[in-house]
Amino acid sequence: MADTPSYGFETLAVHAGAAPDPVTGSRATPIHQTTAFVFDDVDHAASLFNLQVFGNIYTRLTNPTVAVLEQRLAGLEGGRGAVAAASGHSAQMMAFHVLMEAGDHFIAAKQLYGGSLTQFGQSFKKFGWDATTVDATNVQNFRDAMRPNTKAIFIENLANPGGVVVDVEAVAAVAHEAGVPLIVDNTLATPFLARPFEWGADIVVHSLTKFLGGHGNSLGGMVVESGKFDWAQNDKYPSLTEPNASYHGLKFYETFGDMAYSVAIRAQSLRDLGPALSPMNAFLILTGIETLPLRMERHCDNALKVAEFLEAHPKVDWVSYAGLKSSRFYDLGKKYLPRGAGAVFTFGVKGGFESGVTIVENVELISHLANIGDTRSLIIHPASTTHRQLGEAELIAAGAGPDVVRLSVGIETVDDIIRDLDQALSRV
Ligand SMILES: Cc1ncc(COP(=O)(O)O)c(C=O)c1O
Q1: Tens-place pLDDT, residues 292-310
Q2: Rg (CA), the chain
């Protein structure tokens, strides 16, 4: 199924990468809950370790259940290869690991999930990786931030949480002018709503924890490569173009061509950093992906209705949802997210901090927690939870001002979601 791109998206969501088990006939993908795999003989083991043949050695590197998930994501994104990770954050770490040396630099959008900004600004700094963050709503900012040692641009095409849609095609052009890849975090949109490779992105990362798994039960991450980036156009990527000492001088790009980046992530980053996805989580996420198209349609329909309700509510100051005609990102949304603007957005409640707290403490159906992309509707007031260590000026700069409430609209009956918000707002 992985090599059948003529199938429609819904078919790929159910079948890509999977086939009935040849030994048992099992129709669902088996959970290969094993750490290691038996070699045929010493020669077989040697050829696996030398990357002369692909096969299974140890679940930190590959696992047949995880491999189905990797092929499914590659199929859904229209990519050439994919590597799974234990979480979205570890996928981001691996996406950069093959590209960066200590002392290198990358450019990231300011409009990112807060945890990504912390990962880049604090933990990546310890690796000697320097990040400049820029306002992604002006593409020129990426050009201005480019340096000789810049190795990548990183954006969220639909940013968490503020409903910001980035002009992916224009940012990809800036990256390619400088000979560096564009990495797109497609978590909030999912490949059902947005296909970044079709607009020039080179690498897509996902937190599978959100809409792809979709049921709020397992963490996971993924790096997908388009297979189109020329890693030898400059001397920026020695991990891909120079001889690798741990594989007898093998050159990844020369040997693996359009799959070099994902093979190098597996053979260098997964091997040495170790954030492998568990087979059980791969199974749960695969099961979730089978219904991704159906769920995303309902998520988007519900989110638009909830956003329209909030926009008309007298106790709400503003709603930031790209699906609303009033959004400054409405036109970009129509271009990049033609099937809907996702289900995560923010709104501002009159009365600031106290009102935000009142809403999250009074919802009944909607769950007050720090996650998004569940079948269930979720809510959080960032200023009193995820961002509570920040001062007021910092809160506003982070898009988490005292009045901001974030919603992840679920797939329940939309009237029930609206009724719950209405009764919580009535307490304000
Ligand atoms: C857009 C986005 N990217 C990445 C992550 C990190 O993913 P994980 O929690 O799976 O590490 C998150 C988590 O909320 C996210 O919202």
Answers
A1: 999 999 999 999 999 999 9
A2: 22
